[in-house]
Request: fold
Amino acid sequence: MLKIEFNEQKISVPQSWEEISLADYEKWFMHKPEDKMEYVRLIADICKTDSELLLNSPTQLFETISGALQFVFDTEFDPATKVNIGGQDYFISLSDKLTLGEWIDIEETLNSDSETKISEILAIVCRPAGESYNTDTAAERKELFRKLSCDKALPLLAFFLHRKKESEAILHHYSTVVAQANQFLKDTKTFAINGGGIKRLPIWQRIRYIYLTKSLEKQLSKFSDFSSIG
Reply:
């Protein structure tokens, strides 16, 4: 931590993600400065100081502080599914393994006015291997994850972002396949209506053709409904 004293006030400037807690990160990570003034306020928030103090400081001092904090604009981390806290490994529970109780607590957290929703959700979905979910235990661990340093917390968040991108890619591919299948069905029907050789088929093959076409149409209808819900 870089310690700077100006006008009899001390400014603590983090120099790495290890020196920023997840709870502090949650207070300003969504702020996207649109101008110089907003940028000064963001730097002040990260240093837990008054923006007026920075505005009244020499330009060189602000540039020194700003330069030391450039690492906060690099949030590229390799995804991680576990974190070690105090010698204990905590593992992320995958979404398809979550219990109803976990989903309810996550939804309540998202709908709350808490400023540390990320920390609280991690307290819900991260626990030692083999441990069953318990609402009271998760509540007790909220502070544990609030105090977690960002060098350990952000790789966990990177995992969720990675899964989100994967899901979006799969959904896009799925939608493309369904659209192509619908077009194939449409073209096939047009082909059959216009003759397309089907009249030369034996009656049992024509019946089978109509049955398969209807079946494909029914399945695509189900998939299209699913896609719109997703």
About this structure: The beta strands are 2-6, 9-13, 82-85, 88-92, 126-127. The two ends are 45 Å apart (CA to CA). The CA atoms of residues 28 and 45 lie 7 Å apart.
